[in-house]
Amino acid sequence: MLRKLFTQTETVRTASSIPAPTATTTYAPPYASLSSLVPDLTTTQWGNWYPNATITPTDTANPYGNASWSALWNTIPWVNFTRGIYSTTVSPTPVPTSELILPPPEYNVPETCYYFPKDFMLGVAAAAVQIEGAIADEGRARLLTKAERDC
C-alpha cells in the first residue's frame, strides 16, 4: 500500500478516487467449501419488496425466507409507498490545510510475532437493519417501533 505523506506547508489537498479494480482479490474460500465446517444452517438473501407484485414467494416452510419477509411488509398498511430516489454521492472539494484536523501517527502497527496454524479459518457473521432510507430494498427493513408508531 502506498501512502502519500503531506507536509504542514501544503495549502490545498484534493481527494481523488482510486481507479476501479481490474481484478477482484479473493481473501477466503467460497461458502460452499466452508459450509461443511459448521452445523446445518439456513442462509437467506432477500430481494426488493414490491407492494403490487403478482408473484407470491413459495418458501413458506422457511421462517426466514422470502415468504416470511414479504409477509412482514404486507402486514403494514402503507399509504403512498415510494422508493428512494436520492443519492448522497458528492464530488470531492479542495479543503485548505488550515481547516483540516490531521490524524495522529499510527501507534498500532502490525505485529509480526503472532502466527496462526496453516489450516486456521476465521469466521464472521453479521446482520444489521437499516433504520432509515431505502426501505424494502435488498432486504432492508424498518425499525419495528417506527412501524408500530406509523400504523
From TrEMBL:
Molecular-function GO terms, alphabetical: hydrolase activity, hydrolyzing O-glycosyl compounds
A GO BP annotation: carbohydrate metabolic process
Source organism, top-level taxon: Eukaryota
SUPFAM superfamilies, alphabetized: (Trans)glycosidases
Full protein name: Glyco hydro 1 domain containing protein
